[in-house]
Amino acid sequence: MRFVFYLFVFSQLLNFIGVFAEKVKEDSSRLNTINWEKLEENKSKTFKKIIWRSYKNDEYFGNKKQQSSILQKTKSSNKEIISESSKNSGSSITEIEPYLPLNNFLEYDNFQTSVRWKSSFDGGAGGGTGQQNPSFVLDYGMSDSSLMTINFSEADDKLYNTINGQEVDYHWQNYAFSFKKKLLNNNENGFAISIVPTLEYWRHASGSRDSKSIYNQKDSLDGRDRFDNLIGSLSLPISKKLNENFIALIVPGVTFLPEKLGSKGIGKNAYGNNFYIGSGIVLDIAKDFNFLASYTSPLGPGNNYFDKDLNYSRKPVYSIGLGWNVNSKIGFEGKITNSFGASPSTGLLTIPSDNQPLYSANITYKPHGEDTYLTPLNERDKLISTGGITVNNALMPRVGTSQINFNYDSKGNLFGSFGYPLSNIFKLELLNIGSFNEVKFSGYKNSNLYSTYFDDSNLNFRLGGKLLIFSPQKNDLYWMSLRSSFGRNNHTNQGYLFSELINTFRVNNWLAFNISPKYFLSGVESFGGIGFSSYINLLDNLMLIPEINKSIKNNSELNSTIALRYSFSPEKSLDLYYSNAVGVQDVGQLLKDKDYRFGIKLNFLL
Questions:
Q1: Helix, strand or coil, per DSSP, at residue 80
Q2: Which residues, 6 or more positions from 468, have their beta carbon under 8 angstroms from its beta carbon?
């Protein structure tokens, strides 16, 4: 590992020297771009006409015809530059997978952030919606040919399979820093090569008070083992642009991981170092849509997989998916892959104890990109843009506005949320947290749904996003938004996925209504439902909001809510409501409580 550390430091030194030298060269060339010369025409003229000549383009700025010609060329050149710049700014794909970087870069001083989510389709031995490995990525353009990337990821579940009949806890946490430097770029034939070293801090653990660590192979004692390691990787992406819409990629690389952990292992009890050869393609199938696929073969001497009997071996790693640039600010990506690791050094690893296909969902935000234009909301629509109680609406607060909601009711339910629009058409729900209290529905004490998400010690954390699809603000007939959220109960460590397709219609100046199909997906049970609500203006600052939710499951049920909203301003309002919905947070909207409750909800746009 000392060799890896020295290799990383030395390569970074060379890269930064290269960046500095390139910057100095660019600045020097700018200072000596144009030379000017004073020319004199026929000396017999009383007044000498001075004509200036640029050696750069060998053009003369002497008469209107020449000026017009040069101006036309300048405009054409500018269009080409703008067009090329647009292509670069729209190309946010800097990698197919963390271990398969592309030879794409951000412009100097630009940055982008990504939230990525990898999960199995089911929870395996531990139950739940799936074993997840979320990550956060920051890319920064240090120059037009060098990119710095910071990556954080964390997985905290039980192993997918039982080990000797036991459910075993495990924990991964990665802090990664990588630097990509272009070595060769031939624009004529589309051939490019870069080098990408990475250094990571990997904290990982296995076992608990009730389960044996997988790194303990000498005795049968339960207990938790934790290890902190410096790991790394080095890759050399080689790409060829076959045409304007198709890029092929070959990536030789190596990952440096420990091969033995702890003092209770017999022989090698971890992954070890791996050389690998990866291949991939990126195909633009339509405007703002692309197809991505990859296949990677680990060559050893280490491994990237272990089974329920703790036998280690090597498995090929694949991914296939689609990317969509909604606009120049927001991009989405969805894939199927068997890569569970979310960093360059761990990306080759399959889900611990198995080799399962996983789904991967990514959101990328580019603050320097151009946003979708929307006309401003009128005063009436601003009053409803903070949402409802148990039925949401499709409207989106203006970009740069923080949305805060706080809820409390007579049974002790307590919820708060914070959302921030990254774009005119996309809002990130950074925090939706709270707990349900005194929940009572038929057979609730024997219900797995109750014990998993509504138990006495429940505290539910949610993260989500809302995408505006249609809007009268861009000449559509009505508003339509897709909202999804995920999260878990902190007590049971079980999560669920909640999605809704929200449709909002403005009938006239005093009436609007919503239709919202919803779906709840979990390892306990899954079911759908639909919500209906109206916004009825009684006065300019007083609104009546009736709501109904109908769940579609075996014991189908209906809950209702009636609310009165007083608006202090378009950005601040107070809701008083009476409801028999279990709660205002996601799944609570679809379920019916035996008792009604009074509640208060505060809404702020800041």
A1: helix
A2: 394, 396, 424, 425, 426, 479, 480, 481
In eight-state DSSP terms, residue 446 is G
H/E stretch holding 82 reads helix 64-90
Phi, psi of 252 (to 5 degrees): -80, 140
Ranges 44-58, 309-323, 502-516, 520-534: which has the least confidence: 44-58
Under 8 Å between Cβ of 272 and 258 = yes
287 lies in the same domain as 143: yes
Which of 76, 112, 159, 205 lies closest to 423, judged by CA? 112
Same domain, 306 and 208: yes
Sheet hosting strand 50-54, strand order edge to edge: 36-40, 50-54, 59-60
Tell me the H-state helices in 499-550: none
**Arithmetic mean of pLDDT, 407-429:** 95
Question: In the numeric block, which tokens belong to residue 251?
Answer: 């990536």
What is the extent of the structural domain holding 532? 379-605
Q: Residue 219: pLDDT band by 50, 70, 90 thresholds?
A: confident
Tell me if 94 is assigned to some domain.
Answer: no
For residues 338 and 355, is the Cβ–Cβ distance under 8 A? yes
What phi, psi does 384 have (nearest 5°)? -105, -5
In a domain, 124, yes or no: yes
For residue 267, the 8-state DSSP code is S
- pLDDT class of 165 with cuts at 50, 70, 90: confident
pTM for the predicted model, two decimal places: 0.80
- CA–CA distance, 177 with 283 (Å, rounded to integer): 28
Average pLDDT over residues 409-418: 96
Tens digit of pLDDT for each residue in 353-381?
Answer: 999 999 999 999 999 899 999 999 999 99
Tokens 């006495």 belong to which residue? 456
Q: What is the rounded CA–CA span in Å between residue 319 and residue 249?
A: 14
Q: Both 176 and 273 in a single domain?
A: yes
Cα torsion 422, 423, 426, 431 to 10°: value is 20
What is the pLDDT averaged over residues 556-581?
Answer: 95
Q: How far is CA 513 from the centre of its chain?
A: 31
* 596 and 524 within one domain: yes
In angstroms, the CA 278 to CA 297 distance is: 6
**pLDDT tier, 446 (very low <50, low <70, confident <90, very high otherwise):** low
Are residues 393 and 278 part of one domain? Answer: no
How much of the chain, in percent, has pLDDT values that exceed 70?
A: 84
Residue whose pair of structure tokens reads 């653990």 in the numeric block: 205
Rounded to whole angstroms, what are the CA distances from 408 to 389, 435, 576? 11, 10, 10
- 356 and 468 belong to one structural domain: no
The domain tally of the chain equals: 3
Residues 6+ apart with CB under 8 A from 113: 136, 137, 138, 139, 364, 365
Q: How many CA atoms lie within 13 A of 51 on its CB side?
A: 15
- Residue 43, C-beta contacts closer than 8 angstroms, at least 6 positions apart: none
**Which residues contact residue 135 at a Cβ distance below 8 angstroms, ignoring those fewer than 6 apart?**
115, 116, 117, 118, 151, 152, 153, 154, 174, 342, 343
